Amino acid sequence: GSARVAPREGAARAIPIDRARSSIEGHRLSLGLSGLHPALTGEPCSLQAPADLVQDLMRGAAGGGGNRFAGLAGSVYDFTVPARDVDRPALSAVQPQSENYPQFMLPVSLAMKLTFTEPVQAALTEGYVHFTPTFGSRALSISLHSSMVAFVGSEAVVSTPEDLMPGEVYTVTIDDGAITDRSGNSLESSAGRIRISTAPRLRFSRIAAGELLRGPEGRALAGAAVDLGNRIFLLGGGRGRSAAGAGVGLWLLETGRGVRCGASNEPAGETCSRSTCRGQPPSLGTLVLRRTIWRSPRDGGRPCIAADGRPRSSLGEVLWEGRVDCPCPSCSAAPPPPLPANMQNASYLAEGLPVTAAGGTRPLLCRRGFYASGPFMCIAADRHAGRWAPNPACIPSPCTSAPPVVANQSVERIDRRCARESVSPASPLSHGSKCPLHCVPGYAPSSPHFTCRFGGYGGLGAGDPGADGAGRLPSCEAASCPDSPPEGGAFLNCTGGGRRG
């Protein structure tokens, strides 16, 4: 048989304790109860051990043995299975307190006490506390398994292995999953919740403006400047009581502060790997970037740190080189003049800016009788800005239907290319195309051709210099005979409204 744990009510849900959870050593029987089934959580239970669970050892022929265990009554060993801890610990307090606005008062040699909502410990996996600077100082990361971090109950003390930079603002974060409670629940994220600032080594205080004008040598328009050698220049200004403002004073303070190494990222060239924007997100490819020393340290100032972690100090020395993405530029202004002729207006082009150089366009809106050859298109000029491609044009519209049939027109003589079945939007007549007009006998055309102009056959009206008058279509008009017969007495027969002679 085997021992088992059962709730007081519902013996059918009893959980057996197998041999892997039990052991016998001499007269002691050990039963493991850890990790009981979640179904028993919070219920009163009892330990049940049947009579045939164990028996005593055989002591030889004369010593007896082999007697079976008498068993345990179900109510002798009662207990309650505790609920599993699933609540994550949280950060409840920080000393020194997190600053909503930098106060610049903390010492550079710092220890922080973190208080949590329950006892905590460092997780088995490696995790760090990070001090991330705001103004370009060196970042600091401290392992939670190092001697710089101590856990005592629900508190942890973090000490910095080196001084922080003076006058700096640090954001303190803890890696996700780096701190857990005793049940293995990881700490809630602390990102952005802790911010501290250190005191600067040099402070200025402002005095009232009237202080500069006291005494016979009062000064006005005072100013100060600091050079790259950490020297402070104070300009006293002209004498406040002198009409000419003579006697400008200049004072110099040698601070003796070390000048640390200065380096900056500069592109190795101005050209990206592509001339057009492609990809998702669109870009001009990549650009080689180098971090180069432009100022050497002196007077004990800190050196620069190269990518391999070694200090560097020589002017012009490259600390790091790599490729960075070239973002796709954009056109921030409207297309420049001269703009295409025959536009509706140009005011709408100033809307919807900027336009990306990754295929970004603005439409060309033409007036009636014209169509756009394409849109205004923004393309990359360089890695900094876009430019507009050569402007499109407003082109006179073609005719997408055949000329109309007018009264007394000879439909049998219509040119085949101008017939109704030959002209369509898919096969239009181009602007300026001419279709002959033939009339029935006795009638003559007012114009020998239908001319396609600006999408129609009557032009744009009186404003169109190529239109017939006010944009009238040609027509077949009745032919007229001359007032006198021709010489020689010949007869002229006019049909359709003329004379007979």
Automatic annotation (TrEMBL):
<feature type="region of interest" description="Disordered">
    <location>
        <begin position="478"/>
        <end position="501"/>
    </location>
</feature>
<keyword id="KW-0732">Signal</keyword>
<protein>
    <recommendedName>
        <fullName>SbsA Ig-like domain-containing protein</fullName>
    </recommendedName>
</protein>
<dbReference type="InterPro" id="IPR032812">
    <property type="entry name" value="SbsA_Ig"/>
</dbReference>
<dbReference type="Pfam" id="PF13205">
    <property type="entry name" value="Big_5"/>
</dbReference>
<feature type="domain" description="SbsA Ig-like">
    <location>
        <begin position="88"/>
        <end position="189"/>
    </location>
</feature>
